[in-house]
Amino acid sequence: MKLSRLLEGMDYTLVKGFMEVDIKEIQYNSRKVEKEDVFFCIRGYAADGHDYAVSAVENGASVVFCEKDIQIESPVTVIRVKDTRKAMALAAANFYGKPADRLKLIGITGTNGKTTSTYMIKAILEEAGHKVGLIGTIANLVGNEKLHADRTTPESLELQQLFDYMVKKGMEYCVMEVSSHSLELDRVYSVNFKYGIFTNLTQDHLDFHKTFENYYGAKLKLFKASEHSIINVDDAYGTRVNEDTTNNKITYGIDNKADFKAEDIEMHSRGVRYSLVSPHGKNDISIFIPGRYNVYNSLCAAAVCLSEGINTDIVKKGLEKVQVPGRCELVTKEYDLGFDIIIDYAHSPDGLENILTTAREFTKKRLISVFGCGGNRDKTKRPIMGEIGTRLSDLAVITSDNPRDEEPRDIINDILAGISGSNYIVIENRKDAIKKAIESAEQGDVIVIAGKGHEDYQIFKNNEVIHFDEREIVKEILDNLQR
Fold it and tell me: What is the set of domains in the chain, with CATH numbers?
C-alpha cells in the first residue's frame, strides 16, 4: 500500500521525506518493526514512543508518525500530527479498508454488566441465524472461534485487524465491550456504532480517570459515535446520558418509566423470571443467571435485538441459553455438598454488592465471601469493598487478588480500614483462603469467590504471572476433602 492511502482523512504535516512510499505494516512497538513498516510514536504512561523512533528506523521503519519534534538522521519519511493515537486509529482503518463499515457494531459501556450483556446479545442474534463476532474481557469470539483477549477493548490497530478478520469470516454483527480506557485513549476513534449501550456507572478506574466527571466524560464519547443510544434510566448517570445525547434514544429499566421495562420479577436460585413490557407487547422472559442486575443486562439485550427486528420468541430462546464464564457461575453442579460455591468477576464496590445481594436471596443459612483487591489500581475503593463484603456476608475471608507491584498485605490493610465488625478472617494466600471458606461451609451455606471470575492467572511483582484457575482450585480442594 502507498503511504498516501494511509493518510486519507488525516490532518498532517510532512516534516521530511517523500509521500509516495510503499508500506507493509503498521506498528507502535519498535521491537516489532520490520523493513518498510510504519511506526507510530505513541505516548504511554510507562514509556513514550518518541524515545524509540530511532530504534524503529534501525529495525527498518520507512515512515515515522510523531506529535513532537524528533531527531532522525536516516533518509526516512517523518510525518507530524496533532495526536498520534487518533492518527493511528484512522491509519489502521484505512490500512484494512474500513472493515467496521461492513459490520453492524453494537458497543456496550458501563462499570458493570458489559460482558454478560455482550454474551446475551450474541446468543439472541445467533438464535436468529446471524453470524456474530464478540470483543470483550473474557475472549474475542468470531462465531465459535475463540481468540485470546489481552484487554477489554484492543488498541486501535489490533481492533481494526479484528474487524477485518470478522468481515473475512462472514460476520454480520460485532458486539463489543467498550471500556472507559479505550474511549479516553481513542482506541475506537473514527469507529461508528449502530447501537451504543449504557449499563451503569459506579466507582472504578479512578486511578486512571482521577475524577467521576472524567470517567463519565469518557463513557459519553461512545454515544456521540452511535446511531442509537440504549440507556439504563434507573441509573443516575444513565439519566444524564439520556439528557446529554441527541441521537435516537431507547430506554430500559425496572423502577422508572422506560421503553423496555421488567415487571413481576421472580428470583430463584438458578435464575430470574419476569414480564418484559415494551413497544412489542408483554412477554414472559426467563434467564438462567441469578440476580436483579442480570435483569438489566437482559433488558438491554432484548432492546437491541427487538429493535433489529428479531421476534420475541427468538429473544426468549436466546436469553434462556446464555451462560457466561465467571459471571455468577455455579461451580459445584457435579457435587452433592449441601452448599453451593459461586465464582464471580466482581472487583468493584458495586459489583461486589450486586453479587452478594444476589447470593443472599437464595442463601438458606450463611453467606461466606472470599475477596481481595487488585494492586496498582484505584486504592479508594478498597475500604469500601471491605465494608460491603463484611456487611453483606456472615463470614468474609479477606485475601489477595492480583497484587501486581504492591505488597499483598498492604492491599489487605487498605481493605480492613473500611471494616468495623469482626465477622472476617484474613488469609493472604488466595488458594488457602478458598480452602478455608470451603472447610467452614455447612449445609445450606453459599460461598461467593469474587474478583477473578473467568481469569486463570494471578499477577505478582515484576509482572510475574502464575496459573490460577479457581474452577480447578475448587475441584482440587473438594476432591481432596472427599477422599
Answer: 3-95 (3.40.1390.10), 99-321 (3.40.1190.10), 329-481 (3.90.190.20)
Q: Which residues fall within 8 angstroms of residue 381, CB to CB, at 6 or more apart?
A: 203, 204, 206, 348, 349, 373
Within 10 angstroms of residue 185's Cβ, the number of other Cβ atoms is 20
Q: Could you read off the pLDDT of 35-59 as tens digits, one per residue?
A: 999 999 999 877 999 999 999 999 9
Inform me whether the pLDDT recorded for 205 exceeds 60.
Answer: no
Say how far apart CA 126 and CA 133 lie, in whole Å.
10
- How far apart CA 340 and CA 361 sit, in angstroms, is 13
Q: Which residue in the block uniquely carries the three cell numbers 419476569?
A: 274
| Distance (Å, whole) CA 457 – CA 455 | 6
Report whether 235 contacts 146 (CB < 8 A): no
Global pTM reads: 0.86
Percent over 70 (pLDDT), the chain: 98
CA–CA gap between residue 405 and residue 461 (Å, rounded): 4
Q: Is the pLDDT of residue 218 over 50?
A: yes
Nearest to 373 by CA among 431, 424, 415, 427: 415
